[in-house]
Amino acid sequence: NKVSYNNEVYSDFEKVIYEEDFIKGGERIEDGCNKGYKIALLGAMQDPIRCHRSILVGRSLKEAGFNVMHILDDYSIKNQDYIDERVLDKYFPGRSQITIDALLGNEMSREEMVNEGYRMANKEIGYRIECLPVEKKR
């Protein structure tokens, strides 16, 4: 849906979560869980922070109250909080250091860093299109 693309022509996950198809997909997952099914979403990406299933879908499901688990390439199982930590480690590796922003009271909260980290991951992995068709004015 081209409405979900931002000015940098990649799919903006903060817009995708409001698309009708995405919402319906979440409702189907919830319905399946309520019926007792065990739901698995499969992907081929080795590193979950490089995959939209954890950055877009997993995060959204966690925020909706689901217990999201990821099977990693070493067969270990990690929850979505682990993904949050990986995102923080990748995009804010020096977050525990005292910064000038911290001294001035302008430091980002952990939640703000997580949100910004997910935005940065989205920018790296969001589906891109070369050129959105421009609608002609009449």
UniProtKB/TrEMBL annotation:
Pfam families noted in UniProt: DUF488
Name this polypeptide is given: DUF488 family protein
